[in-house]
Amino acid sequence: MDSNQPTLEVTNLVVEYSAKSRSGRGVEVARAVDGVNLSIASGETLAIVGESGSGKSSIANAIMRLIDVADGSISLEGQNLLDLNGAQLRTARRNFQMIFQDPFESLDPRRTVLDTVIESIAIAGIASSHEDQKALALQALENVGLIPAERVGERYTYQLSGGQRQRVAIAAAMVLKPRLLVADEPVSMLDVSLRAGILRLMQQMSEQLGVATLFITHDLSLAWMYADRIAVVYLGRVVEEASAAELITSPQHPYTKALVSVIPVPEVSTHDKRIVLTGEIPNPTDIPAGCRFRPRCPKFRELGEPDVCATLDPKLKSTDNHYVACHFAGQ
Ligand SMILES: Nc1ncnc2c1ncn2[C@@H]1O[C@H](COP(=O)(O)OP(=O)(O)OP(=O)(O)O)[C@@H](O)[C@H]1O
Ligand code: SF4
Ligand SMILES: [Mg+2]
Hints:
By secondary structure, the protein is an alpha/beta fold. The chain has one domain (8-110, 156-324): Rossmann fold (3-Layer(aba) Sandwich). Helices cover 35% and strands 22% of the residues. Helix 4 packs across helix 5 (130-143), helix 5 (130-143) packs across helix 7 (162-174) and helix 7 (162-174) packs parallel to helix 8 (192-209). It binds adenosine-5'-triphosphate (ATP), iron/sulfur cluster and magnesium ion. Iron/sulfur cluster (SF4) binds next to helix 13.
């Protein structure tokens, strides 16, 4: 592999769903992901942030090949995952693993903790004898802080708390030494007091193993704390992307500015007034012409509703690795 090549490179990703038309008579196409480009290096965490319905899970599920992709390419260490057939995909899966939002649904309650991790190892075929599988699984449980591993391993997953279950899921994924970890709202169902511990664990393990991590959250302050870079998505598009610190201290897109203005941290929220967005994110069956953020954009109104916002779809343009899709970025 070329050492400059990112671990994950997503190009022009498009995901569409068919949805019943509101009249109930026909079928409409919902373009939930509309031309997304992402790139994550080894050991790096990229957060995708956006409100409900912006397409975050659709991006994650497409990368994991759990749903159909209408267009684009998803390259993991140079291999386009969309080119893999069923058998090739099963073999490649150990290289890209996912942590789901709901640890109560993602683990089989009838299995013990140890068997859950052993099953992951067995499916990936990384150890042949049962003794080797067990030794690896116990080490994996220890690595995620489930100790003493022998004792915790005997318990059934239904006996564990949400936080412990998420640790089991992380152990089952990380024991495979994947190249990519996709975590879709991994702590949003957990008690607030447990969130930091789980995120720190994922961050440390990813760094140690050189795993590229895609961290999906609707919470910009969590992204700021745990990610190296942040991509803000709105209605299926990345509207801004930069290093976490740069995006929070110097947001350029009016949507990001609004999200940053309500972060409950004084050093961030004092430099701007709270910007409360009105209206809701439109339906992806009906994407506004020109700039898709226009119907809710405070800047559009402030500038006297310039025509260009209604007629021209702004492209993502970069200055010093800071990408923004707004005709008036920086003004
Ligand atoms: N299976 C589906 N069939 C039809 N439409 C879908 C389907 N899954 C998602 N959508 C639509 O696609 C859009 C993006 O949904 P997605 O779940 O990717 O958003 P999200 O950012 O993950 O939201 P949330 O924060 O609520 O999890 C939404 O408008 C949603 O209604
Ligand atoms: S292009 Fe216009 S409508 Fe879109 S974000 Fe920028 S100012 Fe707002
Ligand atoms: Mg989601």
